[in-house]
Amino acid sequence: MQFLAPLLLTGTVLATAPIIIHLLNRRRFIRVDWAPMEYLKLTLKTNKRRLKLEQWLLLAIRTLAVLALFLAVARPISSGTNLAGFLSVEGRASRVIVIDDSLSMAYRKTDQSAFERAQNATRQVLNQLGPQDSVSVVLASNPAAPLVRMSHLDESERKKLVSRVNELSHSQTGSHWMSTLEDIDRQLQEATFPVKEVIIITDLWQAGWTDEVRDLFDRWSQEQVTVRFIDIGDEPAGNRVLRSLELDSRIALVDQEVKLTAMIENAGEEPLKSGQALLTVDGNVTPVTLPEIPAEKTVSVPISVRFDQAGQHTVTLSIPADKLLDDNVQRKIINVRQMVDVVLVDGEPGLNPFESETDFLALALSAGNSNWQVTQAESSTWKTQLLTAPDLIVLANVDQLSKERIKELEELVTLGTGLMIFAGDQCDLQLYNEGLYKGGNGLLPARLQQVRDLSSQGLVIEPIADSPIELLKGLTPELLSRIRPRRFVDVTLDAGADSLQTRVLARWNDAQQSPAVLEKRFGEGRVLLWTITADKKWSDWPAEASFVLAMRVAAQQIAADIQRGENLTAGEPIHFELETVTAPQSGELIWLEQEQNPLELVFASNAAGKTTLSSPAVRFAGVVEAEWQDAQLGKQTQKFAINADVNDSLQKKLDEPALQQFLGKMPLKLIRYQGKEMDLTTEGTELWRYLAVVLLGCLISESMLATFIGRRR
C-alpha cells in the first residue's frame, strides 16, 4: 500500500488520545471506603462485565474514528497486481498473444512509440510463461501467419521468439478487430488444453472496434475463454493527417496542367500555423505552401503538376512531421496519356459548316486542344461499323439504336467508357425508353416524356459534390442567364431511383425547375443526358463561350479512366488485369522506397479469359513495382502506390466503460504498461472513499453507543 500524502500519517498519533483520556479519568478519583457502598458493590458486581465491554467498545470506536480520519486524508492506494499474478491460471493453458501493429501504434508521444512498448510488453509476457503452456504469437494485421503456433517454448525457443519480436515492424494498416478475432477464434478451436486465454497488447485507440465483436466475446465468455488486455497506448494529444491526394479529373494528359487536391486534417485542439509540404514528382522535390489549419478542421490544398511524357508517374506529398509520422504522406500513381479518343455520333449531318449536329461539339472539344482526338461519324454509318473502345462516345440526336449496339454500349460503359446523350427531333423517345432506359436498369438516367417548348431565364447548377459540371458554378449569373433554350425534352425520374447513381446536375430556370443535365453511374462509367440539342436548333447556347467550357469540363470528367487499381490502401491485396493472354510463370513485388522482403506474385486466368496479377495483402505503405517475364514481350513492370490507412488515426482512446461495451458479458481484465522494463503492474485503487465511509460509520456508532451507555438504569 502506498500513500499520496504520507506526511499526514503523523496525525494517526492522535488516535491514542481517547486511550490517554480514559486512563487519566481513572486516576482522577480517590478511593474512600463507605459502608453503604458495600450494598452497591453487590449490585454492580453482576453488571461489571457488561459495563467493561461497553466502555472498551466505545473506546475502540473512538480510536478507529481518529485513525480513519487521518488515513483518509493521507490518500492510501492499494498495491497493484504484478504481471505474474495477472497472468496466473489454474492448470495448463493454451495462450494466444495478439500484438496490435496497426498504424496508430506508430504514435510517439515520448521516447518510445506505442509499438516499441508493445514489443517490451510481449517480451515480459513471454518471460512469465512456463514451458507447460502452449503459446501462439500473432500480429493483428496478419493473424493467419503467426510467429509461432501453439508451441511449448523451452529456453532456447523462447530466446529465438523474443529475437523475432524485437525485429518486428509496425504496419500501416488499419485495425479490423472483428476479422482479427475471428482468425484467433479458429486457432482456439485447435487448442490442446481446455484452459484458453487471449492476451491482446494494444493502444486501445477506438478505430477498428465495432459492435459486431460483442457476439464473439459473449460466446468466448460462455466457453470460459479468458481475455486479458495490456494497454500500452498514450492518450492522443493532437495530430495532423494527410487524408487524401486525389486527381480533380479522371484523365491526365501530356503537357497539360494536372490538378490534384490534398485534404489535410488538424485533429488537435490548437490551430496549425502555415508551413511547407514537400511534393515529389518522379523524384523531383518541390515545396508547397500550406495554409493555417484551424483546430479540429479539414482544409483542401490545390496542387498542380505537369508531365512531359506519357506513362506511369509517381507523385508523393509529405506534410510536416508530428507524433504520428505514417499518416503524413500520400502517394499517387498517375497514368498520363498522350491523347483522349472521342467519337461524336451525328444523328443529323449537314452539308455546310455548323449545320451538322456535332459541329459545335467538335469545335468545343478540339479547338486549341491537341490532346483530344475527335472523330465525327454519321449515325447511319456508325451503327453498322465495328464498335471500338474510345474514351468518350457522344450520341447527338441519334434516332434509334439496335439491341446489339445498345448491349455493346452497355459493356463499354460498364468498363469505364464515358457516354453523353443529346436530345433532338430525330430521337424516337419510345424506343429510347425501351432500349436505353429499361425501367431504370439501362443507360439513360431518366424516362423521356415529350419534347416541350420552354421559356427559361438561364441554367441553374445544382450544388452537388463530385459533379462533372461543378466548375460551371464559377460562372457569373449573367453568363448562366444567357443560356435560354427554346425547346427541351421533358424527363421523369423514378421515385425509387438511387440518388447516388442517378442525379440531376443542372436545371432550367423555369417555373417547374425542369432537369437540364442528368447523370447516371453505370458500372465503372458515367452517362450524361443533356435535354437539349448539341446544335442551335433548340437553343443558341452552342454559340456561347460557356458551351465550350461546359463540354470540355463534362467530357474530361466522364472520359474513360485508365487507372486500373494502381493505388491501394495498406492491408489490401493487389489484383491487376494484364493485357497479355498467356499467364506468366512467376513474378515478385519489389519495394522501391524501403527495405522489405519481396512478395510473391500469383498469375491466373479469370472468367473472361484474361490474365490477372495478384499478391497477398500488402501491409506496409510505399511504392512497389511488380516484375515478371512475359513470353512474347520479355521483362514487364508495373508500379503500385500503397498508402497508409489513415482511418486508424482517429484521435480517441477507449476508456474502461467503453471497452466493456464491446466485451459484452466478458469481464474486463486490464493491465496498463507504465513504460519501463519489468514495470508492468496494474494501477492501485485509491481507498479514501472507503475510509470516509468507515469514519462516518464510526461517528454514527459512537453517538448511538454513547447514548445507550449513558441511559438511566
Rounded to the nearest angstrom, the distance between the terminal CA atoms is 46 Å
**Tell me, what is the CATH class of the largest domain?**
Alpha Beta
Average pLDDT confidence is 86
Count the domains.
Answer: 5
Tell me the β content.
25-35%
Please state the CA-atom Rg, rounded to the nearest Å.
39 Å
Could you give the topology of this structure?
Blueprint: E1 2-3, H1 17-27, H2 37-45, H3 48-73, E2 76-77, H4 83-87, E3 93-99, H5 114-128, E4 134-139, E5 148-152, H6 155-166, H7 177-189, E6 195-202, H8 213-222, E7 225-231, E8 240-247, E9 252-253, E10 257-266, E11 275-281, E12 284-290, E13 297-306, E14 311-318, E15 329-337, E16 340-346, H9 359-366, E17 372-378, H10 379-382, E18 392-396, H11 403-415, E19 418-422, H12 429-437, E20 447-453, E21 459-461, H13 477-481, E22 487-492, E23 502-508, E24 515-522, E25 525-530, H14 545-558, E26 567-569, E27 575-577, E28 587-591, E29 599-600, E30 602-605, E31 611-614, E32 622-630, E33 634-643, H15 656-663, E34 670-672, H16 688-709
Parallel strand pairs: 3-4, 3-6, 6-7, 7-34, 9-15, 16-17, 16-18, 18-19, 19-25, 26-33
Antiparallel strand pairs: 1-2, 4-5, 8-10, 10-13, 11-12, 11-14, 14-15, 20-22, 21-23, 23-24, 24-25, 27-31, 28-29, 28-32, 30-31, 32-33
